[in-house]
Amino acid sequence: MRMLTWKYASPQYFYPLAGKMIPWFAALAVLFGVSGLWLGFFVAPTDAQQGEGYRIIFIHVGASWMSMFIYLVMAFWASIGLSFNTRLSSMMASALAPTGAMFAFLSLWTGALWGKPMWGTWWVWDARLTSELILLFLYLGFIALQAAIDEPRRADKAGAILALVGVVNVPIIYFSVKWWNTLHQGASVSLTQAPSMAKTMLLGMLMMALCFWMYSIAVALARVRAIMLERERNSEWVTQLKEVQS
Amino acid sequence: MKPRHKRIALIVGGLASLGVAAYFVLNALNSNIALFYTPTQVTAGEAPKDRAFRIGGLVKVGSVQRNEMTIRFVVTDTAKEISVAFTGILPDLFKEGKGVVAQGKLGADGQFIASEVLAKHDENYMPPEAKHAVDQAQNAAKTLK
């Protein structure tokens, strides 16, 4: 098992494995996405307070969860890359950043669209919204910093330090609605309490969250494959690939 | 110590000190991060006197009065109350007994003149029939008391 793990930690062996996994995760993303949207738009009941407008929750919550979770995974890989000097870990961190940034943006955007009709404003500087905006800037900063440094190993190190410093923001986002008074409401779903949502609403939301998971994995794998090819283009295993030779 | 153990120790130590630093900063900024003051804080004089700020709480049931374009209502945190006057359009979710956040200034007479009123909804999502059942159960519990 240990040998197997180390084997796939090398780009040479991980490249074909990732290629084989992508279609499966992509197919699962479509499956969960279709069933989640169907549940969300056709099965889940109207909300007593917010009418039909609440349905943006099916995108908004999944995207927000994903934006926070991807950051943690990114920081995890960055720290592994920093301490063990493993090539693939740093590449994984770089591959995750654009997807995380996209979900952070999606979360803020759908949140604004939701806030206008329900709260009466697109934006308010409360702790939840502000810390999520900082998360988006952390992602963009990570991407920009890595792009600004030509030498990949130095770019990895600088990015890893930024990613690790930013980790402190994730619990702040998550607990902001508990620690301070905010316009944003508290969590409907948490590990410690029964969810305060009707069953079908919850199911649709979880399906969409799973869809975003699968999508993120598929896209990150595709991106890490491209990064591997780019960084190791002079190594023997790349030059021997069929798709490179033709 | 191998170099990689040293790096791990550095990362863990760095994260720990960062966490402690963040804790102190957030603690110091506590009152600035909060979006609004509660009526209890306002009556205790914690809110700024000559500057606009936000108050938040529940719209007291039975307190909403409409007069032309001006709406008067009472914001309560169940302990203290502040009366608010607002001229403008209210969000759809503004309702008696529901959450509200209003931005404005405190007048000399203790009335809050709001320039913006936002609705704060809760985290419960349920179909209207379930809401009806919950309301009935709560009313029943009240009459029993």
In a nutshell, what does this entry contain?
The complex is a heterodimer of chains A (246) and B (145). Chain A has helices spanning 2-8, 11-43, 57-84, 87-118, 127-148, 152-166, 169-179, 199-231, 236-239, 242-245.
**Shape verdict of chain B:** extended
Q: Residue share in helices of chain B?
A: 25-40%
In CATH terms, the superfamily of the largest domain in chain B is Nucleic acid-binding proteins
Number of helices of chain A: 10
Helix content of chain A: over 70%
Can you write the helix and strand succession of chain B as a string? HHHEEEEEEH
Structural class of chain B: alpha+beta
Number of strands of chain B: 6
Percentage of residues in DSSP E strands of chain B = 25-35%
Helix count of chain B?
4
| CA gyration radius of chain B, whole angstroms | 22 Å
Q: Which CATH-level-2 architecture of the largest domain in chain B? A: Beta Barrel
Q: Compute the CA-based radius of gyration of chain A.
A: 20 Å
Query: Any idea how many domains of chain A?
Result: 1
Q: What are the secondary-structure elements of chain A, in order, as H or E?
A: HHHHHHHHHH
